[in-house]
Write a structure and sequence with these properties.
Elements lengths: L1 H27 L10 H5 L5 E10 L5 E9 H58 L4 H13 L18 H23 L4 H4 L1 H11 L6 H57 L4 H19 E13 L2 E13 L3 E6 L1 H10 L9 H13 L6
Antiparallel strand pairs: 1-2, 2-3, 3-4, 4-5
Length: about 375
């Protein structure tokens, strides 16, 4: 029995030494593409690795296998930044919901001020057009009253300076001129000629080039012209009044709408902290925090098989190790060894494809329920 134990121990020691030699064989070998370094020089002193492990074993296919493991802190730093940026993004979305509700309330309050000011403006316009009218329209009405008082026997002596409106004064001046010419015409071409010497009377009027009407017709024409001005002012004032009343009604409706929007905005602002979208983002942040809490490390693994005493590269993979399980993905040779050769120490120096694969694995991990 004792002899059997000694043989067993001797065989185990022999096997251990053999496998230990396998590790050395791998470390002393060189990878195609990096002829200036041995594998050991590339992988043993990487600053990105907070823990490096080499081991050898016989796999289920009776192959002698050497395995290299690196706990990559630079990759962890990258995922930490990814997680923090996602948390910050979710926080910004929460703040955006609150800010939008606050901005809508501020806009609704400003809208009330603006629409109220417009309502008061239109109300003043309505009052203005419901009143006696503008200064010009009142002056025209006053001039109209004056020109209606002009008599035939005093028409030629009318004082045109009493008229306040320039256009009315011009009408009055023309009326006075026509009245004077009518008197002159009567003197040059007496009315009596119309019966006894009509041809002479007509020739006299033609040659005189004076106003051929009477003072009455001159006054009537002037009065009519000023009346038309008064009526136009009246029509304009009525039209402006209708427009102002329509705009006042529109302003009243705008105030009602603005009050409704304000009420809605106040309700939304009060309810914003309990908005479903905010709760959804908060739940997502909680998941991200739980995810990071369960995350342990990024482990790079590369393996070689020893065949005929020589190492043969089998492949590499990256594992994201969580407390409940791992997520892994194969990694191309160059993406592992190029980083080792460059001795990468910051995420910005890592190969973009490698980072993309890390992020995909990170996103594929589902956070376990409580």
């Amino acid at each position: 029995m004792r002899r059997l134990s000694v043989v067993f121990v001797a065989c185990a020691a022999l096997l251990s030494g053999c496998l230990g030699g396998d590790v050395s064989r791998v470390k002393e070998s060189r990878m195609k593409g990096w002829p200036d370094f041995t594998v050991g020089q590339l992988l043993d002193k990487r600053q990105a690795c907070v823990n490096t492990e080499w081991k050898s074993f016989t796999d289920t296919r009776d192959r002698r296998v050497v395995e290299y493991n690196c706990d990559n802190q630079v990759a962890v730093d990258f995922l930490k930044r990814v997680n923090e940026e996602e948390v910050e993004h979710r926080r910004r979305m929460q703040q955006m919901v609150l800010k939008q509700a606050k901005d809508r309330l501020a806009n609704a309050e400003q809208d009330i001020i603006t629409t109220q000011a417009e309502y008061e403006k239109q109300r003043d316009r309505v009052a203005k057009f419901q009143g006696p009218g503008t200064d010009e329209s009142e002056a025209v009405r006053a001039d109209f009253a004056l020109i209606q008082k002009v008599r035939e026997d005093s028409c030629a002596q009318t004082d045109t300076s009493q008229f306040m409106v320039g256009v009315v004064a011009e009408i009055a001046e023309k009326m006075v001129r026509q009245c004077k010419e009518a008197v002159q015409m009567a003197e040059r071409c007496p009315d009596a000629w119309q019966q006894s010497q009509r041809v002479k009377w007509l020739l006299c009027q033609t040659q005189s080039r004076l106003y051929t009407g009477t003072p009455r017709s001159a006054i009537a024409t002037a009065v009519q012209q000023v009346r038309e001005m008064v009526e136009k002012f009246g029509r304009d004032q009525d039209r402006q009044l209708r427009t102002a009343q329509e705009q006042l009604s529109a302003a009243e409706r705008a105030i009602q709408s603005a009050n409704e929007r304000l009420a809605t905005a106040r309700m939304e602002a009060e309810a914003a902290p309990n908005n479903q979208h905010i709760h959804e983002q908060e739940a997502f942040v909680e998941q991200l925090n739980r995810k990071w809490g369960s995350f342990k490390m990024v482990r790079e693994t590369s393996q070689w098989a020893i065949q005929d005493g020589q190492p043969v590269y089998l492949g590499s993979k990256v594992d994201l190790v969580f407390t409940d399980r791992s997520v892994n993905m194969p990694m191309e040779l160059e993406h592992v060894f190029s980083q080792a050769a460059d001795n990468v120490t910051t995420p910005t120096k890592i190969n973009p494809f490698y980072l993309t694969q890390l992020q995909r694995m990170w996103e594929s991990y589902g956070v376990p329920k409580h």
